[in-house]
């Protein structure tokens, strides 16, 4: 029996066991399998583990997407979590390309995936407050937002949660060094139904220019003396 003789339901079930690359390769073999590849039932969940994956054409974004996860920790992207003033010109260009890739992808999610329920961004040093603001505005059903070690996230994101996160029930901002205690307290006050987790975030050293850090160090030394 040839695979194309299976009914649509069986083929969709078969595709569900394959990763994105395997689905795409199989879809290239004939028109019938391409139609199965395009079935929204296959694309309610997407996971990505490198910036390069976001630029491939082996997945579909659409209203069927409910759960999205973008997590990476490889050595190549660790530099993107470093403060900008510490990077050389090559590193800045490298990070800028990643930032554009992530921003463009999340903009597509805003425009195509209004039914998103959960979003996990872990280790993504490229995600900005504006990206999260647009997602909260365009995905009103979002219930879970996890932003572990997203170093560019600030209190602006926390404010956006209080204004546009009506459906939100889970918010994780662990190790987001530019989030303050005041911002966290505001979320707890205005959104008491949200389960907020922020391990170490408000206690980490925020990004600042070298001269500001020098001033802090001098002030600290005076207190000691």
Automatic annotation (TrEMBL):
UniProt-listed SUPFAM superfamilies: F-box domain, RNI-like
Assigned keywords, A-Z: Ubl conjugation pathway
Keyword Glycoprotein: no
Assigned GO CC terms: SCF ubiquitin ligase complex
GO biological process terms held by the UniProt record: SCF-dependent proteasomal ubiquitin-dependent protein catabolic process
PANTHER family, per database record: PARTNER OF PAIRED, ISOFORM B-RELATED
Official protein name in the record: FXL22 protein
Organism listed in the record: Sylvia borin (Garden warbler)
